[in-house]
From TrEMBL, chain B:
Cofactor(s) required for function per UniProt: [3Fe-4S] cluster
InterPro entries attached to this UniProt entry: 3Fe4S_ferredoxin, 4Fe4S_Fe-S-bd, Fe-S_cluster_ET
Gene3D superfamilies: 3.30.70.20
Name of this chain's protein: Ferredoxin
Domain 4Fe-4S ferredoxin-type positions: 1-29
Classification via PROSITE patterns: 4FE4S_FER_2
Summary of the function given for this chain in its UniProt record: Ferredoxins are iron-sulfur proteins that transfer electrons in a wide variety of metabolic reactions.
Record key words, sorted: 3Fe-4S, Electron transport, Iron, Iron-sulfur, Metal-binding, Transport
Pfam families xrefs: Fer4_15
Length: 392, 65
C-alpha cells in the first residue's frame, strides 16, 4: 500500500476500517498470511493483550525484514522484541532515564545542539539539505549527551548516523557502519564500567551492579537501541517541517501562538505516523477474540498505527491537521508495554527544533517543487524522506 | 473522584505526567508513576480521565467516591 498524500495514510485503510477491520492479508515480502488490524479500538486491544507477543523468534511472527531464519534465531532479542517478564526487567532499567523531569533538565543542552546545527546550516548557505544538516544530527547528538559519549567521538557518530541513512549507502556499507557503531559502544561501555561518570550508560552499569540482572553486552545493546530508536525523531523533524511548509495557514497559526507547539507536535505525529506496522508486528500465543474475529495461537498480527490514527470514529476529519482537537490520544508512539520509552524526549526535541527553526529562518521554504522531494517507502519500517532541500 | 495507580503495570512512558502533572508524577529512582493526589479537585477531573484513557498499560484507574 502506498500513501496518497505524503503526509497521510494509504487510501486502502479507510475502506478496510469500514468493511473488514480485521483482515487476513499477504505479506509483500514473502506472501505469508497475517491479520491486519486497522480500527483504533482494536489496535489498542491487540497491543495490550498479554496473549500477543512481540518475540520475533516465535513461529508465525510476521517479520518484515529479508533476513534468513537462522540469523533471526541467532540474534539477541532487543527491547522491541522481548515479552514480559524479561521485557519488564530491561525496560525498568531505562525508564528512570527518560522521566519528564529528567528530560526537562536536558532542554538547555537540546537548545544548544539545535542552535549550533542551524548556525552551521546558515553559515554553509542556501540551499541546504535539512535532513542531513539538522534532522539526522540533532537526535544523535542529544543521545550522545544523554549516553555520555565524549565530545571528541561525537563527530564520528554523527558521520556514521548520516551515512547509515544516506540514499547512496549500500546495504553492505550500512551493515559495516552498524558494526562499527556497535564496536564503538561496546568499548565505551567497557570504559564506563572501569570509570563510571554521571551519564546514562554509567548509571545503568552502577544500577546493574546492585541488581545483577544484565550483562555488559545487554547494556551495549540497550545503548544501540536507544540511538536507533532516537533516529525516528530525525524523520519527524524532516517530515513535520515539510508538512508545516506545505500548510502555510497552520504554520502561520503556530507562529502567532507559540503555546500551540505541544499540540502541534502531537498532531503532526498523529497525521504523519512514521511507524505504521514496523514496530507493531506481533504473534498470538493463545486464541484471542478481537471484534468478533478469532485470532488463533501462532497467527501473525500487524496493528496499523497509521490507520488507527486516522480512524474517523476517534479523530473527526482525520486527514486534516488541526491543532485544536479536543482530545488527541493518538498512537504514534505505540501502545501497551512497548510504548516508546523516549516519547518525552522526542516531543521535547521536536518542540525545540520546530520553534527555533522557524524563529531563526522565518523565510524557510522548500527549494524544489514538492513532487521532486523523494520519500522513502513505509516498507522500510519507518517512513522518511531522502533529502529535504530548503532555502531561506 | 478516587484515583488508583498500579505501579506493577506502569511502564514509565510519562503519558499521565504529560497529561496531568498536578496529579501524576514519576519516582526519580524507578521512573514509575507516583500519585500526587488520590482525590483530585474537580477542575482536574477532565484531564485525570484523559490520563486514565491515555495510559498505555491501564495502570491508572478512576472511580467515583
Amino acid at each position: 500500500m502506498a500513501r496518497v498524500c505524503p503526509f497521510g495514510p494509504p487510501a486502502e485503510y479507510a475502506a478496510l476500517r469500514a468493511s473488514e477491520p480485521i483482515k487476513k492479508v499477504s505479506l509483500k515480502l514473502n506472501g505469508r498470511q497475517v491479520w491486519l488490524v486497522t480500527r483504533y479500538d482494536h489496535v489498542r486491544q491487540v497491543l495490550s493483550d498479554p496473549a500477543i507477543s512481540a518475540n520475533m523468534k516465535a513461529p508465525g511472527f510476521p517479520l518484515q525484514l529479508q533476513i534468513p531464519d537462522e540469523m533471526v534465531q541467532a540474534a539477541p532479542l532487543t527491547l522491541f522484541h522481548m515479552d514480559p517478564p524479561v521485557h519488564t526487567v530491561h525496560r525498568r532499567m531505562v525508564i528512570p532515564e527518560f522521566t519528564v523531569r529528567r528530560m526537562e533538565a536536558l532542554r538547555p543542552h537540546i537548545q544548544r545542539i539545535v542552535d549550533d546545527r542551524i548556525s552551521s546550516m546558515i553559515e554553509h548557505g542556501a540551499p541546504a539539505d535539512l535532513s542531513s544538516a539538522l534532522a539526522v544530527p540533532v537526535p544523535l547528538l542529544v543521545m550522545c549527551e544523554l549516553l555520555g559519549v565524549p565530545y571528541a567521538d561525537r563527530e564520528d557518530l554523527r558521520r556514521w548516523g548520516t551515512q547509515v541513512t544516506a540514499r547512496e549507502s549500500t546495504p553492505e556499507q550500512q551493515a559495516r557502519i552498524q558494526q562499527e557503531m556497535g564496536a564503538y559502544l561496546a568499548k565505551l561501555v567497557a570504559e564506563k564500567d572501569a570509570d563510571p561518570a554521571d551519564d546514562l550508560i554509567s548509571r545503568l552499569i552502577l544500577k546493574n551492579r546492585e541488581e545483577n540482572q544484565l550483562e555488559l553486552a545487554d547494556i551495549t545493546s540497550l545503548a544501540l537501541v536507544l540511538i536507533a530508536a532516537g533516529q525516528s525523531t530525525a524523520n519527524m523533524i524532516s517530515l513535520g517541517t515539510l508538512a508545516l511548509l506545505e500548510h502555510p495557514e497552520r504554520l502561520a497559526e503556530l507562529k502567532a501562538d507559540p503555546s500551540l507547539m505541544g499540540r502541534a507536535v502531537d498532531e503532526l505525529a498523529r497525521v504523519i505516523t512514521i511507524a505504521d506496522t514496523g514496530g507493531t508486528s506481533r504473534v498470538a500465543t493463545a486464541d484471542i477474540e478481537v471484534g468478533g474475529v478469532v485470532i488463533k495461537a501462532g497467527d501473525g498480527v500487524m496493528a496499523s498505527l497509521n490507520s488507527a490514527n486516522h480512524d474517523e470514529n476517534v479523530f473527526p476529519d482525520p486527514d486534516r491537521i488541526d491543532f485544536h482537537r479536543a482530545s488527541n490520544n493518538h498512537l504514534a508512539f505505540g501502545h501497551g508495554v512497548h510504548k516508546c520509552v523516549g516519547m518525552t524526549l522526542a516531543r521535547l526535541e521536536l518542540e525545540v527544533v520546530y520553534t527555533t527553526l522557524f524563529e531563526r529562518l522565518p523565510g524557510l521554504r522548500l527549494a524544489v517543487p514538492l513532487d521532486q522531494v523523494r520519500f522513502k517507502s513505509d516498507d522500510e519500517l519507518v517512513y522518511d524522506i531522502h533529502e529535504l532541500p530548503v532555502a531561506w | 473522584m478516587r484515583v488508583v495507580v498500579d505501579r506493577e503495570r506502569c511502564v514509565g512512558s510519562g503519558t499521565c505526567v504529560l497529561t496531568e502533572p498536578g496529579v501524576f508524577d514519576q519516582d526519580e529512582r524507578d521512573g514509575r508513576v507516583v500519585l500526587l493526589a488520590a482525590g483530585p479537585p474537580r477542575e482536574l477531573w477532565e484531564t485525570v480521565l484523559e490520563a486514565e484513557r491515555f495510559c498505555p498499560t491501564g495502570a491508572v484507574t478512576v472511580t467515583e467516591d
